[in-house]
Amino acid sequence: MRSRLRSRALATRALALSLFAALACSPPPPPPPVAAPAVVPSAPAPTVDASPADASAPAPPAPAWPHASPATVRSAKGMVVSDNALATKVGRDVLAQGGNAADAAVATAFALAVTYPTAGNLGGGGFAVTRFGDKSLRALDFRETAPAAARRDMYLDASGKPTKASGEGILSAGVPGSVAGLAELHKVLGSKKKTWAELVAPAIALARDGFVVDAAFVDTIEHATERLKKYPASAALFLPGGKPPAVGSTWKNPELAAVLERVAAKGPRGFYEGPTAAAIVAQMKADHGIMTAADLAKYKPKWRTPIEFTYRGHRIASMPPPSSGGLTLAMICHILEGYELGKLAWQSPEELHYVFEAMRRSYAARNAKLGDPDFVKLPVERLLSDAWAKEQRAGIAADRATPSSAIAVDGPASGTGPHTTHFS
Questions:
Q1: Which of 145, 328, 420, 421 is the catalytic position?
Q2: What is the pLDDT of residues 34-48, one digit of tens each?
């Protein structure tokens, strides 16, 4: 399954990698751009094995929060937030051992490839927004790319209608970017105190020795059960005995451990060349896929300029296209700036009405107008203009929701599901 590690935001004197990131705790830098605010109060939550070094960290206040609380990993040496407590602990430990946020991001991402396989994995790709000290922001694009043999009509049937092949099956697979992107992060922004092999090692241990299955792990497998059943190798791994592993059991992935060992020993060459690459190409040939050894060998991540915008006096940086997240967030914020949300009760129907209406219009524009800037020209200036935001507000009624069908969209809305993971 594809993985998209997109951008949420933060700032730190050492390094900030937003939405694909780990935060080192240190004094804040002089007023720089800040990444997109993601402050979410949480209720008391179970704590995952705090080490002695962490014991002195005071417990944070716990304002009421109406949703289920995640597991909490405490640390006095830094902060990592991810969709899986085991992966979070891996990143936390890297910070405690002297690594910086880039090191922690690499280790966390590889751990997620084991513990959160529906989203964090080696066969997908990602995005990273970074700031090193008070230097300029940078964005790394290591999203999957289309194989050279891909064609614009490959997901259409004879009548020109879309098929399911773009989201399921061998033709849906893009050339993976995760390993190359993480290696680039480590090379350019790593502390040099932690070797590449040291950062991959925790993931190898998790895959080889296994980990205790929790309800969240089972839920993500259940979400994909019907698709997994179609592929014998996937079913054998994720559906032993025809169903997801039981909560409390130990789940192992020895073949992934072997892949990670090659990556640890040889870096990207251990994935894009050699036995792993050969296995990918062999599977492609067996199932009539189009990815080749040449596609794998020439994959390269790209550094891009982050998108920056302001919201009520705050300067925000996020991922630019081909990620749609940054532009969509900017459109939502620009629409909402026209309303005095601070005078409405937090999470009240009145406040949420305007938030949802702004999101509805921004996502419609996203689906209709955004794509890969390497291939198409995007109307970025138009979508980020005050005039566009004003036009959207003109169609929002205070007393009723707008049917999504009333907003023109070129194509279907994006699907939902646990196939994207964000971490900081």
A1: 420
A2: 333 332 223 333 333
